[in-house]
Each structure stands twice: as structure tokens, then as C-alpha cells.
Amino acid sequence: MRELVYYVAVSLDGYIAGPDGQFDGFLGEGDHMRSLTERFGDAIPTDIATALDIPQPGTMFDTVLMGWNTYAVGLDAGVASPYRHLRQVVFSRTRTTADIPGDTDGITLTSENPVDVVRRLKSEPGSAIWLCGGGSLASALGEEIDRLALKRNPVLFGAGIPLFEPGAYAPRDLDEVGTTVFESGVVFSEYVHTERRS
């Protein structure tokens, strides 16, 4: 069965974005970039990967899940389909395709229960499913997340969008399955739910 992987940058105080939704405090340069890009090239926006000649074979991820606010970051930059190399699923209870300027090809906008969508996707063949964000969507899908892949950055935001909303779901035991400390100060760690570890 396919894994749902929450692969995300996070501050030391547990935020995936700052108070105004900004994420420019995360390190975009350093020795962590090459290592993570080689493994997670599928998680780079299509236009950026093309410009940097980064392969996107779809072997790590073939589907990306986003809440509307995460998706809208690309819209603000004039990009309606940020991950054209992946199947893109955007969750919103209030938005419609009329809110997307430009080509919506490759975008599935849905108000369906995220858990139902993920369970259906997991039953299909394919690579892992990338939970891109944000915090509310991650909280709704907490019980379905199979793997946390966290890029902990040496920065404190003080407030913002949390990795998970407090009290969003019942506590679960996690097993650390790997940690790499980079000279840049980024620490990359992966965790899986204890009961799901093979």
C-alpha cells in the first residue's frame, strides 16, 4: 500500500510558516540541499526543477496534496499548476475552479473529506503520496500519515502555522528511522508510526 508522507520544512519551535504565512526564513542554500534534492526532487515545483535541471522521475512521489492556502502561494506568483509533473489534489470547502486563474489542467480541487480521498489514493497503485501542507490539512490527516520527513531548520518563528494543530488527533508513538545533521544547521529526520513499521 502507498505511504502518505508529510515532507516539510519546520522551525525549531514547530512552525511550517511564519505569522504571515512566510517561509523565507528556511534555508534555501547549504549542504542539505543537494542531498534532499537528490532524494526528493519530485517535491520541487516543476518550473524550478526544469530551470535547475533537476530530474523528477516520479519514483518518490506521484501525487501531491495541498490545502488551499498552500496552493495559493503559487497563485500569488502567477503559477496555477505548480507541480505539473505530479497529480495535484487541492482541498477547499469554499473555493471552486473559478478561483483559479489560468489553466487548471492537472489540478483536482475537492471539498471531499481528506481522509476518504487519502484512503482511496492509498488503495491505488503508484509511488508515495506527498502531503505538502498545510497545518490544518496535516491535522485532518494525522491518523493517515505513515511517515514524517522533517527538515528542521535552525530558526525560530515564534508564531505562525504549526506542523499540527494542537489537540488535532490522538497521540501516536513514532519510531525514528533516520536522522542526518548537516553543516548548514538543518537536521533531517524521518519517523514512522510504530504500529505501521515493517
UniProtKB/TrEMBL annotation:
Domain Bacterial bifunctional deaminase-reductase C-terminal: 4-187
Pfam families, sorted: RibD_C
GO molecular function, one term: 5-amino-6-(5-phosphoribosylamino)uracil reductase activity
Organism domain of life: Bacteria
One GO-annotated biological process of the protein: riboflavin biosynthetic process
InterPro entries per record: DHFR-like_dom_sf (IPR024072), RibDG_C (IPR002734), Riboflavin_Biosynth_HTPR (IPR050765)
Protein name: Dihydrofolate reductase
Protein species of origin: Labedella gwakjiensis
